[in-house]
Amino acid sequence: FEQLLNEQSEKAPLDYLLQIQTQIARTFSLTAKFEEAHSILDRVEPQISNETPIAKVRYLLERGRTFNSNNEKSKAKELFVQAYNYGREIEAYNYSVDAAHMVGITSTSLEDKLKWNQKGLSEAEKSDDPNVSGWIGTFYNNMGWDLFEAKRYDEALEKFELCKDFYNTSEYERYFQIAKWSIGKTYRMLGRTSEALEIMTALMEEKAGVDKSGYTYEELGELYLLNGDTENAKAYFEKAYEILSQ
User: For the chain, how long is the longest CA-to-CA vector?
Assistant: First the structure.
């Protein structure tokens, strides 16, 4: 990003240059260097105007993400709501749906989380722009986990099934596997152990027997333990621990 900024500094519009700077700030917030991120955004803020609409919505998003990553949820949520409204105002829907999903993440109540995810989902579903419609799976996934955390497993399963259906293309293979894993874990919570085991075993076959994430190993350990197979459970828990402890 810094190289791009240097290359474009003399010829690109201000809106574009400010956008690059918001993404440089994002790299700092993602590595927990919050002061550095805020410092860059402090320099961007006074340059924003009606002539830099995309930079403005991206500034709001990245300032919000910096607060969110530093666990300042209320400040973050306020900025994400602004980004959502402004993104819709300027018809930059790829950013307004991003903002809606971030409001969902920073909301404290399940009702609010579901409401904002549904707002973003509705926006994504009516769009012909793949940069907007591509968010559909994210919203189903996030609603699924919000419901899962609330122990509303049947409703969570419905969202994960919709998520799997959306990602059922070669383009989204990794996300398709994650959706199947989510369904398998939810089956376990619903007591549907044999179905869960079938999904996790199939996932291991798809991964040629190697689970780099460790999460499928962990689920297999849980499932074998429920089935009374302590030997296999121990073997999978050890594999999971080796990865997840890092």
Answer: 68
- Give the DSSP letter string of 92-154: -HHHHHHHHHHHHHH--SHHHHHHHHHHHHHHHHT---HHHHTTHHHHHHHHHHHHHHTT-HH
pLDDT in tens, 38-81: 999 999 999 999 999 999 999 999 999 999 999 999 999 999 99
d(CA 69, CA 43): 20
| Integer angstrom CA distances of residue 47 from 64, 111, 189 | 18, 37, 51
Residues 6+ away with beta carbon under 8 Å from 146 = 104, 110, 113, 114, 117
Amino acid at 75: K
pLDDT digits (tens, 9 = 90+) for 199-240: 999 999 999 999 999 999 999 999 999 999 999 999 999 999
Count other C-beta atoms under 10 Å from residue 67's C-beta.
23
Whole-model pTM? 0.92
Q: What are the DSSP calls for the chain, one per residue?
A: -HHHHHHHTTTS-HHHHHHHHHHHHHHHHHTT-HHHHHHHHHHHGGG--TT-HHHHHHHHHHHHHHHHHTT-HHHHHHHHHHHHHHHHHTT-HHHHHHHHHHHHHH--SHHHHHHHHHHHHHHHHT---HHHHTTHHHHHHHHHHHHHHTT-HHHHHHHHHHHHHHT-SGGGHHHHHHHHHHHHHHHHHTT-HHHHHHHHHHHHHHTTT--SSSHHHHHHHHHHHHTT-HHHHHHHHHHHHHHHT-
